[in-house]
């Protein structure tokens, strides 16, 4: 099982949360005659478990509130857990760093590609760095990529036999 965080799943869970709140507000407005602001407030309060300010007027409204609670709380808790995971893992920082690195690589022109970041590749990179020459490191070993990242070198994971 993949243990990595998925921003796509997180985005879909946020969309589901907004949809449940919107459906709750619409249900309270159309079926139970509440104005839009009150209906929206009741839907948010119900889904976030902050508590109801008054008991729903009818049995139908009570059943609707229970259904909204079950659907909304599950999604709300998933989103809250995902936010904690984002903070704990530094997912956003990693995503933004990866995007910055990709943009920097794509903007390079007339640069060198260092295939392999072993002893020789690191020495070549040091010479290029001192001379102010643009370059990208290409390697597939995790330790070599970690060193490249630590030294602030632009790098791509892969090997020289692939395009």
**Rounded to an integer, what's the Rg over CA atoms?**
26 Å
Specify the structural class: mainly alpha
Query: Do you know the CATH architecture of the largest domain?
Result: Orthogonal Bundle
Mean of pLDDT: 82
- Going across the major beta sheet, what is the strand order? 1-2-3
Q: Which spans have pLDDT < 50 for at least 5 consecutive residues?
A: none
Distance between the termini: 29 Å
CATH topology of the largest domain, what is it called? Answer: Helix Hairpins
Any idea how many domains?
A: 2
Strand content: 5-15%
What's the total count of β strands? 3
DSSP helix fraction: 55-70%
Number of helices: 6
Order of helices and strands: HHHHEHEHE
Most strands sheet: 3 strands, parallel
Secondary structure: elements and pairs:
Elements (H helix, E strand, L loop, with lengths): L6 H26 L3 H12 L11 H31 L1 H16 L5 E4 L3 H13 L3 E5 L2 H9 L4 E3 L6
Helix pairs in contact: 1-2, 1-3
Verbal overview:
- The longest helix has 31 residues, at 59-89.
- The chain folds into two domains: 7-89, Helix Hairpins; 110-157, no CATH class.
- It is built from six helices and three strands.
- The protein has 163 residues and is mainly α.
- It has a three-stranded parallel β-sheet with strand order 1-2-3, covered by helices on one side.
- Helix 1 packs across helix 2 and helix 1 (7-32) runs antiparallel to helix 3 (59-89).
Question: What's the short story on this structure?
Answer:
This protein is mainly alpha-helical. The protein is built from six helices and three strands, in the order H-H-H-H-E-H-E-H-E.
């Amino acid at each position: 099982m993949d243990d990595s965080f998925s921003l796509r799943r997180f985005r879909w869970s946020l969309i589901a949360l907004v949809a449940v709140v919107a459906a709750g507000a619409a249900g309270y407005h159309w079926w139970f005659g509440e104005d839009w602001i009150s209906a929206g407030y009741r839907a948010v309060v119900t889904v976030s478990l902050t508590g109801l300010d008054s008991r729903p007027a009818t049995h139908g409204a009570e059943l609707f509130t229970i259904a909204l609670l079950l659907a909304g709380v599950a999604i709300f808790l998933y989103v809250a857990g995902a936010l904690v995971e984002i903070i704990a893992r530094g997912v956003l920082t990693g995503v933004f760093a990866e995007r910055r690195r990709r943009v920097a690589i794509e903007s390079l022109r007339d640069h060198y590609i260092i295939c392999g970041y072993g002893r020789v590749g690191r020495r070549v990179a040091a010479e290029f760095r001192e001379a102010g020459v643009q370059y990208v490191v290409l390697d597939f070993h995790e330790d070599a990529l970690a060193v490249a990242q630590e030294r602030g070198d632009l790098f791509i994971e892969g090997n020289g036999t692939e395009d």
